Each structure stands twice: as C-alpha cells, then as structure tokens.
What we know:
This protein is of the alpha+beta class. Among the domains are: 70-94 and 110-114, no CATH class; 116-301, no CATH class. The chain has helices spanning 3-15, 26-37, 57-75, 77-83, 149-167, 170-173, 179-182, 190-201, and strands spanning 130-131, 136-137, 223-225, 231-240, 246-260, 271-283, 297-306, 334-335, 359-360. The strands form two sheets. Strands 1, 2, 3, 4, 5, 6 and 7 form a seven-stranded mixed beta sheet that branches. Helix 3 crosses helix 4. It is elongated and about 155 Å long. The termini are far apart. 32% of the residues are buried.
Amino acid sequence: MSEEEWERFLRESVAGVPGAPVEPSARAREVERRLEESPGQPEGWRTYAPARPRRRTGRYVTGLVVVVALLVVTLFPQQVIGWFGGDDGGQDGAPQAAESERPREAPGAERDLPATLAEPFRGSPAARWADGAAGITVPPAEATGWMDAAQVGRALRRSRDFLVAAGLDSRVLRGERPTKAIALLNPHQKDVQEYLRTALSSKAPSGRTDPLLLFSRFRPEQSRPVGDVVRTRGRLTYREGRKGAVEVTADVTFVYPVTPAGDGGRDAEVIRTIVRRQVVMSWDDPARIITEPGTMSLVSYALDMTNGGCSAPTGYFAPPFGTAGEQPADRARRVDPYDRSKPIGTGDGTTATGGNCATAVRS
C-alpha cells in the first residue's frame, strides 16, 4: 500500500466514509422502540410540561355573588332593609299576591311606624298591596244567566269601572260629582236615582243618604291626598241572580293617605283613611227588566270606614288630624280595618272615640 492510500485510510477511519451505514446507538434504538410501541408525539428528553393550573370556579363564583350583592345594596338599599326586617315597615317588601278568595285571617302585624309624605303606606299591610284598579281581582268569565262568556266578561269589566270611577277618580276624591260612575247605573231604578239626588245635593245627609256609601270624597279645604296612589285590595265574584241576571259582588278595601290641606311642610301629619265597600250589582236581562244598555242596577251597598270621621254624616271623609296621641276609651269597640276575613259590617271605625264609632287597632 502506498503512503497516499495509507493516509486516506486513516482519515476515513476517523471521519467516516460519506454514505456508509451507521450503527444506531443504544439510546437511538430505545427511542425507536418507544415510537413503535406508543405512536404519537414523543416526550423530549429535556422538555418541561408545566402542571395544569387548578380550576378556581368556586372562588370566581363566590366573587361574582359578592359583587352582585354589593351592587344590589347600592342601587336598592330600602328593599334590602325591608328583606331583613328594616325600618321601612314592609314598604318595599314583595307585593302580595292578588286576592282570589276571602282570606282566612287578618294580615300579619307590621312594624309600628307612622306614615310619612315620602312613605304614606309605611307600617301598614297596604305597603304590599297593588295600586288602584290593579288591586281589584276580576275572575275568569263563564256563561251565566242570560249572558254568554263574552257578555259576562264585559259586565265584570264595567263593574270594576264603576268601582274605579266611584272610589279612585281624582276629581271625585276632591268632591266633584261622580259623573262616570252614575253613567253606569240604571236610570230606571227609581230608589237609587232618588238616593243619588238626595245624597249629592244635601248639605246634611242622613246615614241612608250619605254619598260615602258609594263614593269616596274629601273636602279640598280640609285635606289633600298624599301623592297620586291609592292602594286597594279586593275581588269581584258573580252568580246568576233574579230573572236570569248576572249578579256581581264587589268587596274592596281602599287606603287613602291624606294630609291637612294647609300644611305643606316636610313633617306634615299623614293619616290613612281606610274604606271597605261591598257593592252588589245586577246586570239585568233587558227582555225582563227595564234598563239601558251598558248599565246595571244596585242590589245593595255597605261601608266600613276607619279614620274617616266620627261625627254626623257630612258627605265627605273627615280624617281626625291632630288626634294621634289620644287614648281611646277602654270599652271602645276595636276593629282591624285590614282584616278582610270577616263579613263587612255597617258601622264606622275610627281612631276617635265617642258615639257609635269604634277604635282601629292599626291604620
């Protein structure tokens, strides 16, 4: 072998011959075996797989609840106070469900807090009652007597319209003539028409001719309403009456917050006049009874009143301002004006004493 060939042999022994097969190392063979046994991306020899972060769902949910609670307290502080028995007397409590039948007992006791100009229903069950006509429940209509279901539905709506016109109309509350309510009464019912003429024209009505039996009225020079809201609670029921008529009975309590007419101060006294009326209306068959379309006859009407006056009838409610601190006589008859579980009576109730008046246990 020449010296040139020997030197080439030595160089190739050290550097290797290009393209010559290479014997894989033990590590290479181990990696190849793992690839064959476990296909997929191999784990690198010097790679690092960080541990997955722990899920913090519970902590996030708790934080979200706290944020929402703080937001509610900020935006609706009075409501939150009411939920936990705060000083609002239930003013902002959950609205009471509509009355669908006569309750079995009186409403629960409220915190004994006086009414104010800002919160005229504070401290009374009326704080959770509905406003105006919304508090008068109208039942589903079914064919009854001479009327089909659609006619009964109209009769029920007009019956409620009469209650609204007689007890909620702002002009009537100021002592004006109840024109809309009168328009719904049968003009051929002589005894009722005579009652209306006497009651609305007499300066000294008697008990039987008192317009308050049907209409709510205050003297503007004596008292004025607090706000525009009157709270109500009650319902309508119906049945077949005489000669196939549809007889509708309304049993509704009205709560009127009022203040003295000349007192415009922030600390003005607020009294709630509470009136419960029961009116029975007959929607007569025109083939049997003389009547006019869209009008009804009155079968009966009765009144219970609290904080509306205890003297002789004047035709207007007379709230007893300035008597909040007076103590009633021990023997005075006591009534709960919010107790709708008992049948309506015909006597008055008021915080004043004397005569035939009773003492209200709350107002």
